[in-house]
């Protein structure tokens, strides 16, 4: 096909992709090409501007390593992650809502017994977290896998720390026969997402801040239930209404109760302040399990 012009190029590309036998890929590519071309037409994209765009995407790719996930940051800061999560988790009222995964999950966290302190090596205010994992129909869920990860009180995750050769501030717990989980850690603080790269430059150009309100990450999995990836946010934390990655949901904001000292839930005495959080998770059975 020759002599394509601004009116015929879109259909020509769509026709060229016709040969695939992967129907879902075809559907996605038709829509992607249509929307991408519509965008260029709508803003009358100049060659100089598209050069800047390509340079930006190149920079996003080039800064990525196994520990630096700039494309996740881009998806998150553009709200695309929140959109994709929302349309894939239309759950019944009462189920715990999902939110962004973020770039700091690792799959090989240590498996710890309930009650263990998962913050050994990190300084901060002691925090005792507990709750239950249940099904939307009220059934307790024993042996659910509860993966937890968090930043330290300076707002850094272990994987961001140069030269650190072990994992910190993350663990895998299993609910007991009553569907309960509980552990000790330290209070995480609000922190900025990594903003020393191209996504940071984009935020700056848009006059946006990179901060996230204080939160604790959870991923909960159990056979016959939808996987839940979520966070629990701190009531009163700064940035709840301007989270850089659009992840806050009111149902995920909870009281992190501060105690001036005294006995913690494990019966140990503290002279200094500590905090507690109780949060009960509600999982949605998979469509297959409901059938
Ligand atoms: C996080 O909470 O770990 C996170 C989420 C999205 C982007 C950056 C960090
Ligand atoms: Fe986080």
Summarize the structure.
The protein is α+β, with helices and mostly antiparallel strands and 291 residues long. It has helices at 9-16, 23-42, 47-63, 70-77, 80-88, 198-205, 287-290; strands spanning 126-135, 145-149, 170-174, 180-186, 191-192, 211-212, 215-221, 228-234, 253-254, 257-259, 262-263, 269-270, 274-278, 281-283.
Question: How would you characterize the overall build of this protein?
Answer:
- With 291 residues, this protein is an alpha+beta fold.
- It has seven helices and 14 strands.
- Strands 1, 4, 10, 13 and 14 form a five-stranded mixed beta sheet that branches.
- A hairpin with a 5-residue loop joins strand 11 and strand 12 (269-270).
- It is globular.
- The structure holds benzoic acid (BEZ) and fe (iii) ion.
Jot down its keywords.
alpha+beta; 7 helices; five-stranded mixed β-sheet; 291 residues; binds benzoic acid; binds fe (iii) ion; 25% helix
